[in-house]
Design a protein that fits this description.
heterodimer, A: alpha/beta, 3 domains, four-stranded parallel β-sheet, three-stranded parallel β-sheet, 15 helices, 11 strands, B: alpha+beta, Heat Shock Protein 90, five-stranded antiparallel β-sheet, globular, binds iron/sulfur cluster
Chain lengths: ~425, ~150
Amino acid sequence: MDRYYHPIEIRPELCNGRMKCMRICPTRAIRVKQGKAQIIDELCVDCGACITVCPSGAIVPLTDPFASSLNFKYKVALPSPVLFSQFRPEADPRKVVQGLKKIGFDYVCDVSDACEEVSIAVEEYLSSYRGRLPLISQLCPAVVRLIQVKYPDLTELVAPIEVPREIAARDVKQKLSRELGVGLEDIGVIYITTCASKMVSIKQPAEKESSWIDGAVSIADVFGPLFAAVSDIKDEDVDVDGSEGFRFSAGWSMLGEMTRLVGSEHSISVSGLSDVTQILDDIENSRLRDVEFVEAMSCLGGCIGGALVVENMYVARSSTNSLLRKYGSKFTADRDKVVEKFRKGHYSLERELAPRPLRPLDPDLAKAIEKKKQKDTIYTSLPRIDCGCCGAPTCLAFAEDIVRGTAKLEDCIYREEKQNG
Amino acid sequence: MSDDVLFFKEFSIMGKDFSNAGSVSTEIKSILKEIGFDRLIVRRAAIASYEAEMNVVMYAKRAVARLSATPTSIKIEFQDEGQGIADVDLALEEGYSTATPEMREMGFGAGMGLPNIRHNADEFDISSEVDKGTHLIFTIHADGNNG
Ligand code: SF4
Ligand code: SF4
């Protein structure tokens, strides 16, 4: 496969070539050519950092527009638990569920149960697992991509357990189809997402044929209409039983929740791509020998810091804490049942996650070594100030582009000066 | 096979510099990945160099590390100035360690060092002189093909 689906797009007509995205991209996937930013397909891990930083709004997430998500006979909203943290802590979360129904959904599905089930499944898996450690959480698609692309040798460490949103979507579809007597194809499950990266796992899942989720709208897009609907609901109109067994245990919206639930003493939680990278390097050097499990999230603070949310992460975290205080975060899952389902493969991935390593400098090792040497020589000859004027984020990336034949030495403005004068 | 193509790079490491500990092996690893060696080979090289680097950080004053990569072999050398190893054979025994309790508490020096390097290498050679230093050379064979 040479084209990868990416859930973001740069609108050239809006791009002013201000290079903010190029500088922030953790995998150095952006180049600015003729004043317009471009993404190198192979390198992008869909972290969404460029979306947040673009001053011109030229980088847009390709989530589904809210209206088109309603094109199913029976419409199910599957909100990321982060959605509930976007409202004032005093706001009754049941109003949010009710609000989703007012704006067009027929059913709202809680992901909390699936989160618990998945943590039990991971724990079960860990308890009988005797392979290489640590295992790495499978939750954040951007981290999974980063591993496939830049740490291919760690791909086998990603916990081979399905993510909660997929399990929740599958279970709710099967349940509703049974209860309502409608076909699975008539039920549309729409994920309300914190990031574009989850779009990838819906449109081009790495570990199965197709996703159980039919579309994703961003929290940012749904927030306007939802906020209006929620504000209209009076306290006395709160539908106490109508929230479909919602527990508001706030699932895994906060970093560390998964490791807490998985309950391994030897686990760590890490967030933000640069810290994640550091941990992955440590794992590669086999430095984290005593760690069993690593929860790694691309956004600082976890999904609560996603690119497509509306509330600032610190406020959202405090609101989540109040929800947890009010509704508790106790386990309600029936452990034995989950374990039994786990043994039957209920939480297993359909297929193994495969590495997706970067194209080497050259397919021939000897030539690759030559190119690596050329690259280093070119790099030493550059000013090494990462000015970005050549259109590459760093002098090192520029040197590599030259060796790969996608840039010319003349593009460096300092070089030219040196030669002319 | 063109074994005359050689990538060579030298690095320096300071003893007791725990804040940069691991950076040389991380760089060695990324060079090998970038060239495109098979990932299992890169894994072995990374683990062995990390161990060697940590030995320097823990026990030596300073060291030079040298990476020489050809399509068929990755040779890595660590030459340090420091206390040296009195009994090399003993140090090569699994579980043997002179790490202080503080070092162990920090997760270092579980006696994995030298045996683990030897375990990950195809060729392994060590010479040491007390109060002078240790010279460690290990090689990992590659099959000349791109991973
Ligand atoms: S989504 Fe992330 S990896 Fe992809 S281009 Fe933007 S900043 Fe880079
Ligand atoms: S941390 Fe969460 S919001 Fe951020 S990219 Fe990963 S899955 Fe998306």
